[in-house]
Amino acid sequence: MKRRARRVLPFAVVVALATAAPFVLSEFATSLLAEILIWSILAMGLDLLFGYTGMLSFGQALYFGVGAYGITLGVTRLGWAFLPSLLLAVIAAGVAAGIAGFFAVRLTWHYFAIITIIFSLVLYFVALSRADLTGGEDGMSFEVPPIVDFGGVELSVYEPLVEYYFVLIVTVISFLLLRLITRSQLGLVFRALRDNTNRASLLGYDTLRYRWVSFVIAGMFGGLSGALLAVKMRYASASYLFWTVSGDAVIWTVVGGAGTLVGPIVGTATLITLRDYLSTWFENHQLFTGLIAIVVVLTAPQGIVGLARRLTTRS
Amino acid sequence: MAEILVLHALNGLVWGLITALIALGLSIIFGLLDIVNVAHGDLFMVGAVLAWYLVRYVDNFWLALVLAPLAVALLGIVLERLVLRSIDVARSLVVTFGLSLILQDAVRSTFGPTPQRMLPPFEHTIPVFDFNYSLYRLLAALIALAAIAGLFLYLHHTKFGTWMRAVRQDRDMATAMGIPTDQVFMVTFAVGAGLAALAGVVATPITTIEFRIGLVILPAAFIAVVVGGLGNLPGTAAAAVLLGEAEGIASAFFSPTTARIFSLIFMSAVLLLRPHGLFTRRTG
Amino acid sequence: MSLILETRGLTKRFGGLTAVDRIDFGLAAGELRAIIGPNGAGKTTFFNVVSGFLPPTSGEVYFQGRRITAQAPHRINQIGIARTLQVKSVFNSLTVEENVWVAAQSREPIQRPFRQAMRSSGVRARVEHLLRLLGLDGHRNTTAGNLAYGDLCLLEIAMALGTEPKLLLLDEPTAGMSAAETAGTAEIIRALAKDVSIILVEHDMEFVLNLATTISVFHLGRLIAEGTPAEIVRNSLVQEAYLGAEHA
Fold first, then answer.
1. Residue at B281 is within a domain
2. Do C55 and C24 belong together in one domain?
């Protein structure tokens, strides 16, 4: 019982702090926190793929973008309500990952990484060329329908508190889901694949199938993240599909600590906060972000969380 | 119609050769140092920016052609010694990504965010069929070709080049044989960086110059490296030219964006069907 | 007499090198067979082809009368063949217990995403049995990457057994082991042979002569002799192969 409490306590504290945040922080800071939460969903999905299954994808931007456009087009073109459009976004991202993954998981290492980049580039250029549909690089803004509009109760993201708590709830649920998966029977298979795909295959596992499953799950969370960002920005653009989005996710995950699930959240929070706070003081915030990423990775290769864990277990 | 095709094919060839320079640099850095250099495109960009400054203040393109790559090669040496020594692949991704951010930001705050253009050192054209093709572009292609040839000559006919190949084959054996691997690493990164910068200088008159052009060209270089076959330098050069030509010819029929899409799909097919590269012979 | 494993004309060429040369091999159910031969005789390549790791250049492989030539390794394992590798290969970041669990749970039809790992009681029983059988019980929480070499060999065997094979291919199971560990492993293998057909590839002659009921001798990719340990020791072709290899 005590052991369980020790694991739940830090989590409960963080959630409590996050819940109290809008009343303690400025509006700008709260909005930033919401953005951090949204991006960390992308990073956590990538962590499942990379940290737990050993597949370094540099193309998660593809599913992020599909999610963003999924909800945007669901609302503007299909006239759907909020939740159905959100579901559409996640499913569309899952389908995209299913198709791309069918091909991609047959490759390993750098080949896998490169093909994920190629796929995301293809969709980026498609989005650019079909500017009539997507708004191209300039993007398209849209009016976000209320989350819930039932029985006289209307919850709309145009209310900052509603938006923030919606994002927080979705992030917490995403974290819990991914945590469940990584600690599950399937998660054990993923970790085995990460360590030694060959051996897993010799033990009777259809490694392509399980790699595909991990890929699709990561893609769905990427799509969820993209959809949420589109909602928050009231806007989707082809830039969401650019490969630097994928690169950012990898950096956040590695700096925070891959294979820990908490690491990506920490990494995302650290680097985005740094970027935003530094940008109010310096023009060159990118430079400092780069410096910090380099320093962390060279001195703490397991990332921030990995370092913290090593320090606490030693004591 | 045929002329338009030839025009696009020529442009594709020019860009393919420029990309080949960048891809070759990327490949030798990866092959010898196990570093995936995400900042490689930014080294190309720095080369272009340096060329712009040199031409602006010294008004000598040819000087820029020599000085800019040297300067970037020196920068490469510094970077290699400071942060990239004995680093594994996964970490190299993050470190070079950080470097990429640093380089872009440094350029953005000194050069400025506004894209600039630069005139070629001469405006002559050469008649090709019914139109006049920029002579400079042909020269650019020739310079790139000469550099590529120079690289191969260096690798195969000089002592140091042979050392580089030995270290690539088997690092431990090379050290055991008395080859100064530390020096080899340094020079390799310098050469790789220098090649990217040379590509940048050569490209300056035919592209816009701004701090983000590295991001645009990096994926193409990576694709050329992988499709050509990791460690297969001639294959990489060929793949880069192939990619350039595929895009060039496709853009005769479609918009440049659509052309890119087609060439990317083509590259995916190559990766899936011949994952060891288009030009590498499968062993075993 | 039913053959559990049979190969006909099995050949594997790598460019100019013929590693396995038209081998007709037959193993009856319940046998404990050893394959011996000088280095480069093709023993591990033979295992690689039979277990689906490499496709043969020509020839066929039959398991329990069923053609399994060139099938994917995971399918061959699901059908009932398990193997250990010459270069020990486990899941380094997982604990010993987790390693064996991964092997044992591979027989489950679905790998559940929402059920906590290492909970299934049926699988747990098998995991416990294997840990005890191979003497790994005390190391269950050790990270596999930190295991002593001898224990690593035993872990490989435990994992292969976890997949409930009918045929076990052991590739140099005692390489690098001490004399005591080797003796212990011999006992384990002898006990296993009661339920599982086994083929061993080994270099340790004494180990093989004491353990195997039948020995097959490979040389330069060909099967040059087969018989009881006593017969093989007296066989002049075998002596020549080993002596020749020594002088080469």
1. no
2. yes
Write down how long chain C is: 248
- The C-alpha atoms of residue C165 and residue B189 are separated, in whole angstroms, by 51
SS3 of residue A227 by DSSP: helix
Estimate the crossing angle of helix A243-256 against helix A285-299, to 10 degrees.
40
Query: CA A305 to CA C211: how far, in whole Å?
Result: 51
Name the closest residue on chain B to residue C19, using Cα atoms: B284
Residue B284 clears pLDDT 80, i.e. is over it: no
Range of the domain at B182: 2-273
Specify if B279 maps to a domain: no
- Could you tell me the CATH number of the domain that includes residue C23? 3.40.50.300
Q: Is B90 inside any structural domain?
A: yes
Same domain, residue pair C65 and C175: yes
Domain-embedded: residue C15: yes
What value of ipTM does the predicted structure carry? 0.88
Overall domain count for chain C = 2
Helix C149-162 and helix C96-105, axial crossing angle in degrees, nearest 10:
20
* DSSP string computed for B28-78: HHHHHH----TTHHHHHHHHHHHHHHHHHHH--HHHHHHHHHHHHHHHHHH
Same domain? For C136 and C75 the reply is no
Residue C189 resides in a domain: no
Of C85, C106, C162, which is closest to A205 when you measure between CB atoms?
C106
**Chain B residues touching residue C15 (CB < 8 angstroms):** 283-284
Rounding to the nearest 10 degrees, give the CA dihedral for residues B239, B241, B242, B245: 160
Cβ atoms of C48 and C11 closer than 8 Å = no
Domain membership of residue C228 (yes or no) is yes
For the segment B174-219, what is each residue's pLDDT rounded down to a tens digit? 888 888 888 888 999 999 999 999 999 999 999 999 999 998 898 8
What are the residues of chain B with a beta carbon less than 8 Å away from any beta carbon of chain C? Answer: 283-284
One pLDDT digit (tens) per residue for chain A, 315 residues? 566 666 778 888 889 989 988 888 888 889 999 999 999 999 999 999 999 999 989 899 999 999 999 999 999 999 998 999 999 999 999 999 999 999 999 988 777 888 898 899 899 989 988 888 888 888 888 888 888 877 778 888 888 888 999 999 999 999 999 999 999 999 999 999 999 999 999 999 999 999 999 999 999 999 999 999 999 999 999 989 988 899 889 889 988 999 999 999 999 999 898 888 777 777 777 788 788 888 888 888 788 888 888 888 765
* B222: chain A residues, CB-CB within 8 Å: 114, 117
Residue with tokens 């097959």: C216
How do residues C180-207 score in pLDDT, each as one tens digit?
888 888 888 999 988 899 999 988 778 8
Residues in chain C with CB shorter than 8 Å from the CB of B283 are 15
Q: Which residues in chain C are closer than 8 Å to A192, comparing Cβ atoms?
A: 91, 94, 102
What three-state secondary structure class fits A151? coil
Q: Where in the sequence is the domain holding C76, given as residue range(s)?
A: 1-80+167-181+197-248
Are residues C209 and C100 both part of a single domain?
no
Structural contact between residues A224 and A170, judged by C-beta atoms closer than 8 angstroms: yes
Residue B282 lies in a domain: no
On whether both C115 and C219 belong to a single domain, the answer is no
Local structure of A149: helix, strand or coil: strand
Count: domains in chain B: 1
User: Is A250 in Cβ contact with B83 (below 8 Å)?
Assistant: no
The 10s digit of each residue's pLDDT in A248-305 is 898 899 889 999 999 999 999 998 988 887 777 777 777 887 888 888 888 887 888 8
* Confidence (pLDDT) at B132: 83
Are residues C98 and C51 part of one domain? no
Q: Is residue C104 part of a domain?
A: yes
Query: If you measure CA to CA, which chain C residue comes closest to B282?
Result: C15
Taking the Cβ of residue A189 and every Cβ of chain C, the question of whether any pair is shorter than 8 Å is answered with yes
B207 DSSP assignment? S
Chain A interface test: which of B97, B251, B282 (most A C-beta within 10 Å) = B97
Q: Does the beta-carbon distance from A122 to B261 stay under 8 Å? A: yes
Q: What pLDDT digit, counting tens, does each position of A9-20 carry? A: 888 888 998 998
CATH of the domain at B112: 1.10.3470
**Shortest Cα distance, chain A CAs vs residue B219, angstroms:** 8
